[in-house]
Specification:
This protein has 5 helices and 10 strands; from the N terminus they run αααβαβββαββββββ.
Length: 229
């Protein structure tokens, strides 16, 4: 039986990383660097930065080089690579985009579950996706292909799987700023001219469910409806 995980931010983060990784898996090797990129383990293609935004790309690259320094020459650490980072803080989304459900509602978690006491927080979370390559052509090829992945109609949203009391259900995440992000160029200190870095700033909108006890009876007017356990 799966562990209860409702109300947890790390579930949202893991779901979005899986969504991005699916786009990385689709990339075609249009340059020699991307030919090597697609053969690397998934964890070497997309790195998740722990609990902070990518504010200092130089430090991020230095950490990556040290962790990838297999031959004693950190400057030769394998590129391209992608990084994803999340802001420490989250916030409620504006009411014109959706309202949280503060009062307890008795709802079915899925088509076969009983009723549970549920509250829902509508939230937003800032996220950055960074593309790093030696050649401009490779970096551009990565952003173009990831943008095409996000533009596909079925990928305008991403699913967040939840588990509670042996029941499984999903909520949906969306992009506040649309699914056609524009990249900004990030400069690297130290005079390095052979690295191209593009960054996307994304805002994720999602529902964070808080699920309480199962409901054994529902009051509807004067009728007491018994719920099968």
């Amino acid at each position: 039986m799966s562990t209860n995980n409702t109300g947890r931010q790390d579930v949202v983060k893991e779901a979005f990383v899986r969504y991005i990784m699916a786009g990385v898996d689709e990339m075609l090797p249009i340059t020699p660097a991307l030919q090597k990129f697609i053969t690397k383990p998934r964890s070497s293609r997309l790195r998740v930065c722990p609990s902070r935004m990518v504010d200092d790309v130089q430090d991020m690259l230095n950490t990556y080089r040290r962790s990838s320094d297999a031959n004693g020459k950190a400057i030769d650490s394998p590129l391209p690579v992608m990084f994803i980072a999340f802001a420490k803080e989250t916030s409620p989304i504006p009411t014109d985009r959706g309202r949280s459900v503060a009062d307890v509602q008795n709802v079915n978690l899925n088509n076969t579950s009983g009723f549970y006491q549920v509250r829902m927080q509508h939230k937003s979370w800032r996220c950055q996706l960074v593309f790093v390559a030696h050649e401009h052509e490779t970096a551009t090829g990565m952003t173009d292909q990831m943008r095409l992945y996000m533009q596909r109609f079925k990928n305008h949203r991403w699913q967040i799987p939840w588990h509670h009391d042996g029941e499984e259900f999903e909520t949906t995440g969306t992009f506040e700023d649309g699914f056609e992000p524009m990249e900004s160029v990030i400069d690297v200190d130290g005079g390095r001219k052979n690295i191209t870095i593009f960054a996307w700033d994304l805002t994720l909108n999602y529902v964070l469910p808080f699920v309480g006890d199962a409901v054994t009876a529902i009051q509807t007017g004067d009728v007491n409806i018994q719920v099968n356990p």
